[in-house]
Design a protein that fits this description.
Blueprint: H1 2-10, E1 16-20, H2 21-25, E2 35-39, H3 42-52, H4 70-81, H5 87-90, H6 99-108
Parallel strand pairs: 1-2
């Protein structure tokens, strides 16, 4: 993460490092470039990352160098084909063999929300608009 954030920062991109206080104070990570936001927990880190990001790239992939993630991609494709995961969920998993191709795919990506999960209130607080999910098994 440090190499990526440093390269982005050097080339003029805005960089926000979100780190749990325990890791920052424990000197477990290197120097943060750009802005640093300390949060109490890893859960808070994830929440802040979601609030402040347009996309995530899990390194070394889904930069699929030398086909490293081909088996994972095949598994996800099969899971979608057999309706184990919704086709709309499969769409958010983007893979590319080069960094340039990954950037192009991310720039071209148009998110299509799942109409069922879009109705769920994911907030921590209670809400009167929560949708009741039908979890019955249909064979």
């Amino acid at each position: 993460m440090g190499c990526v954030s440093t390269a982005a920062h050097v080339r003029g991109s805005q960089v926000l490092g979100i780190i749990p206080t325990a890791l920052a104070e424990g000197n477990f990570v290197g120097k943060t470039v750009g802005e640093e936001l300390r949060v109490p927990t890893m859960q808070d880190r994830t929440s802040k990352m979601l609030e402040n990001s347009d996309a995530f790239i899990a390194l070394p992939g889904m930069l699929n160098v030398d086909g490293f993630f081909n088996k994972l991609r095949s598994f996800l494709d099969q899971a979608g084909e057999e309706n184990f995961i919704p086709h709309l969920a499969r769409q958010i998993f983007i893979s590319a063999s080069t960094a340039e191709e990954m950037i192009d795919k991310l720039e071209d990506f148009v998110y299509k929300p799942n109409p069922i999960t879009a109705q769920i209130d994911w907030s921590k607080g209670s809400s009167s608009k929560k949708r009741k999910m039908d979890l019955s098994l249909h064979l």
